[in-house]
Amino acid sequence: MKLGLIDEFDAAHFLPGYQGKCANLHGHTYKVEVVIEGQVSEDGMVLDFYRLKELLKAALSDLDHGCLNQIIPNPTAEKIALLIRARLEKELTDKPIKVVSLKLWEGRNKWVMAD
């Protein structure tokens, strides 16, 4: 069974070496949509939504209201999505649950999907 969760965070970044407006420091409200998959356990859940929310918040904690360039040298949407997905997968390695997809929205009309 699959289940999903959406959260948001705000952060600033710039793209080094980029020719255009994104070369300048600017900010976005990012929306993260994660889908996980696993078997329904004896408690009737794949994973408690509250627990998934905690894991996602932890994966986003140093990104929220930060400058992404201090964490990722060239913080493109693609690299940010891959980082968040890797952090979630690391937290789920001891469980029979996998991350199916992670969609990162950069603002309202642009997104990347790490699946």
Concise overview:
The protein has 115 residues and is α+β, with helices and mostly antiparallel strands. It has two helices and five strands, in the order ββαβαββ.
Write the layout of secondary structure elements.
Blueprint: E1 2-13, E2 26-38, H1 49-60, E3 66-67, H2 77-91, E4 97-106, E5 111-114
Parallel strand pairs: 1-3
Antiparallel strand pairs: 1-2, 2-4, 4-5
Helix pairs in contact: 1-2
Label this structure with key terms.
2 helices, 36% strand, 115 residues, 5 strands, 23% helix, 5-stranded mixed sheet, alpha+beta
Strand order of the largest sheet: 3-1-2-4-5
The portion of residues assigned to helices is 10-25%
Number of helices: 2
- Kindly state the mean pLDDT as a whole number? 97
Largest sheet, in brief, is: 5 strands, mixed
Low-confidence stretches: none
What is the total tally of β strands?
A: 5
Which class do the helix and strand fractions yield?
alpha+beta
Q: Please state the overall shape, judged from the principal axes of the Cα atoms.
A: elongated
Topology as a string of helices (H) and strands (E): EEHEHEE
Task: Note the beta-strand portion.
Answer: 35-45%
- Alpha-carbon Rg, integer: 15 Å
Give the terminus-to-terminus CA distance.
17 Å
